[in-house]
Amino acid sequence: MSFLISVFKPLAYISLPIVLIRSISASSPVARYYTRVATYVGALLTVASCSIFVAAGMSLVGRSNDVNNIVARIFYGLVHRVLDVKIEVEGAENLKTCPAILMCNHQSMLDILIIGRLMPKQTAIMAKKSLQYTPLGPFMTMSGTIFIDRGNSAQAIRSIEAAGERLKTTKTSLWMFPEGTRHLSQKPDMLQLKKGGFHLALNAGIPITPIVVENYWRIYRKGIFDTGTIKVRVLPPISTTGLSAADVGTLATRVRDQMLETLRDISEKVPSGKRSSHPESQSAAPRDSSTPLDNAASLLGSSSGVIPDSAEAVLETKGSSSSLASSSFSSEPSHNRRKMSSSTTENGAETEEDEGMILVGRPSS
Q: What are 359's strand-pairing partners?
């Protein structure tokens, strides 16, 4: 009997927070929402803090490239059990194509859970350079993060060029959110895709693998954070062989069309009577409707990599990443660059914390 007590007593203490959370959540819809948000953000902060020690330990044994994969899996394993939100993946075999540009639609900070479920091994992150000086800086440095200097277009372009070379020489894949900003609405829809990732794919001569996450409006939005299963479909890779910079626009349209068709196919159908409050022209939620999870991005500094609009402009006009750092764009007046980086697309406002999030990774064979 004493043996059983010694075994079950620690388990009881460990399960107590979960029981408490669920009890508070059951008290009212508002309490449920904020309790679950606090749990998600708390888990994110806790895992992010502990990841520094994971990174240090794995760096010592020569496995720094696996740090992000392990940390992501820990986060997913913890959160999906506590909050009962599961990720169901279809077409996972398409992730085996390597190297490739993995392009995923972006809805909210809940997408970190998607990354936790799908992030491949030997993965590094491309992030804005300012994050190097945040509490997450040591972890990101030890895990091989590639930093982009948003305030220096020439340096940013050199970093992007180096990333392209890394894709080819180390046979790594790159995960990105090509919409460039979060977009969550009742109706399954997507913003226009930014073209930086497409130029990288063409320059590196590697395919693009679209990853589509169903519209999870029913599970998570402002005031609502429910349990459930989120479906993800990985589409077959799209070859870029034989394409040039002149084909980038057509390629971006093709990829978006495939992703949007799949998004509408795997998402729950929205009755037409419920769409009036979210007209089709409203493709992104207003900034003042940001949810607590999205605001958490600012608290964490967000591990989001940014390809500045200015750098994309050079990629668009030059059609190649070669010699971009010495292009005439670097002499453009700074006020023009600030204007470009702060501008909004016709479909939604740019958010500095998550614009153009990029992950560099090599799926395990």
A: 125, 175
DSSP 360: E
pLDDT in tens, 207-258: 999 999 999 999 999 899 999 999 999 999 999 999 988 999 999 999 999 9
pLDDT per position as a tens digit, 137-188: 777 777 767 676 766 677 767 777 777 787 788 777 877 888 878 889 999 9
Amino acid at 6: S
Q: Tell me which H or E stretch contains 313.
A: helix 309-318
According to DSSP, the β-strands at 228-234 and 85-90 are parallel
Instruction: Give tens-digit pLDDT for 250-298.
Output: 999 999 999 999 999 999 887 665 544 443 334 444 444 567 666 655 5
Kindly report the backbone phi and psi dihedral angles of residue 166, in degrees, each rounded to the nearest multiple of 5, phi listed first.
-65, -40
- Nearest 5°: the CA angle 98, 190, 229 is 75
**CA-based nearest residue to 222, from 327, 158, 274, 293:** 293
Exposed (0-12), middle (13-18) or buried (19+): which is 252, by Cβ within 10 Å? buried
Half-sphere exposure of 255 (CA within 13 A, CB side): 33
CB atoms within 10 A of CB 19: 10
- The Cα 185–Cα 282 span in angstroms is 8
Q: What is the pTM of this model?
A: 0.74
Contacts of 136 by beta carbon, 8 Å cutoff, 6+ apart: 48, 300, 301, 303
Residue written as token pair 């508002």 = 30
